[in-house]
Write a structure and sequence with these properties.
Elements: E1 6-10, H1 16-25, E2 29-33, H2 37-44, H3 55-63, E3 67-69, E4 80-83, H4 98-108, E5 116-119, H5 127-136, E6 148-151, E7 170-174, H6 177-187, E8 194-196, H7 200-230, H8 235-242, H9 266-276, H10 282-308, E9 317-321, H11 336-346, E10 350-354, E11 360-363, E12 366-369, H12 375-380, E13 383-386, H13 395-401, E14 405-407, E15 420-422
Parallel strand pairs: 1-2, 1-4, 2-3, 4-5, 5-6, 7-8, 9-10, 9-13, 13-14, 14-15
Antiparallel strand pairs: 6-7, 11-12
Length: about 425
């Protein structure tokens, strides 16, 4: 092994690019590989393709020697490789590991003996060994001797200014103890804390546990929000009071629905594997049902408020504020805003949206363009729906100029106004 560890990162999206830069800052010699030529061209030119990474960070890293390429052959002399490719769900809600399989098969043909492979992409328990391990041993190599294999779940929270990629404790588990040793040696210089678990399968379950826990508890609070509405109780006030208990309660908050790549999807990786073992994961499916109903609940609440004002939704002018799935990011994957816009259109409402981070939004076969948040546009709307509470939004101005605001995020908590209705 050379005095400077040479590592590869496969997949340069919102997980892989920050990881590649973190490894570079830790002193590793880094090669970033992505099959998308446009992504590689942008990065080589110093243009970031990830909202949490600045152009300056990429420019500096390129000047200091980080390499971006589409060629897996560039990984022929690396000490380790992290796989950070997408793992979506198929339309049947079953795992799609095609990107992982492709990456593993390509790596098997190029990486040297003694290389450490760490899978970061979210998979079902057992997949690291079954899928990646099988590909790496196709040519007769032995995991734990000729090649070292581990799983370390990505825990990045896009848009989080407090916890960056290396601040979050890094869970990892090896397929064998020797695999875990090699993976820990590779990651320890990069992350503030490495949390070693017993196996790759255990590490895989950690990631699914985290996001299933969140999905189920968000589903619970979304259901209770609907109950609270029928009881004429402010759910946000109830949560604030409940969280004063110093033990036995952890606050979760309702919203217009789940979004992003993790929470709406990861539980189904666990559910699929559990079903394979003959276990029915009822909590997962119930929570998913409740969370998927929230856009309908938002629209129904808007209908009720408009009716109280003598305005039919079919003739209403609606402005949706926020299209990203969470504040201060541009990611619209699984965003509830898409479903809300679609359902409003089904009611024949006239719909526009505004999002400072999302210039265009695809809804079925139609593409919307973000409209400027002018006083005139706010004045003309029969209802403004706050779906994503970006920090750049002037919530007070939105409330002041709008005839009615439906707040699905509690963004107006500190504003006392008669024209505001909260979820």
């Amino acid at each position: 092994m050379s005095t400077q560890t040479r590592v590869g990162v496969v997949g340069l999206g919102y997980v892989g690019l920050p990881l590649a830069l973190a490894m570079h800052r830790a002193g590793h010699e880094v090669v970033g590989v992505d099959v998308n030529l446009d992504t590689v061209k942008y990065l080589r030119n110093g243009d970031s393709t990830v909202s949490d990474v600045s152009d300056a960070e990429v420019t500096d890293a390129v000047a200091e020697g980080i390499t971006f390429t589409t060629d897996y052959a560039a990984l022929s002399d690396v000490d380790g490789v992290s796989i950070c490719v997408p793992t979506p769900l198929r339309k049947t809600d079953t795992p799609d590991l095609s990107f992982v399989i492709d990456a593993a098969e390509r790596l098997a043909g190029v990486v040297p003996d003694g290389c450490t492979i760490i899978l970061e992409s979210t998979v079902y328990p057992g997949a690291t060994e079954e899928v990646v391990g099988d590909a790496l041993t196709e040519n007769g190599a032995t995991v734990g001797e000729d090649v070292y294999l581990a799983f370390s779940p990505e825990r990045i929270d896009p848009g989080n200014k407090e916890y960056g990629p290396t601040d979050i404790p890094k869970v990892l588990g090896g397929v064998t103890p020797a695999c875990g040793d090699h993976a820990k040696a590779l990651y320890s210089p990069v992350f503030d804390e490495v949390v070693r678990v017993e196996s790759a399968t255990e590490a895989e379950l950690v990631k699914l546990l985290e996001n299933t826990f969140r999905a189920v508890n968000i589903g619970l609070i979304n259901e209770l929000a609907q109950v609270a509405h029928e009881l004429d109780v402010d759910i946000w006030n109830a949560i604030d009071a409940a969280k004063t208990k110093p033990f036995g309660f952890m606050p979760f908050y309702p919203g217009p629905g789940l979004g992003g790549h993790c929470i709406p999807i990861d539980p189904f990786y666990l559910s699929w594997k559990a079903n394979e073992q003959g276990i029915d994961t009822r909590f997962i499916h119930l929570a998913d049902t409740v969370n998927r109903e929230m856009p309908d609940h938002v629209v129904q609440r808007v209908v009720e408020q408009l009716n109280d004002r003598g305005v039919a939704l079919s003739r209403a002018d609606i402005l949706v504020v926020g299209a990203a799935y969470k504040p201060d990011v541009s990611d619209t994957r699984e965003s509830p805003a898409v479903d809300i816009v679609l359902k409003l259109e089904e009611w024949s409402a006239d719909v526009d949206y505004h999002d400072p981070h999302v210039p265009t939004l695809a809804v079925d076969d139609e593409t919307y363009e973000s409209v400027p948040l002018t006083d005139d546009r706010l004045d003309s709307a029969d209802c403004t729906i706050i779906v994503t509470d970006h920090s750049a939004l002037d919530i007070e101005r939105i409330v002041e100029r709008s005839s009615m605001v439906f707040d699905a995020r509690n963004a107006t908590a500190d504003i006392d106004a008669d024209n505001v209705v909260r979820l």
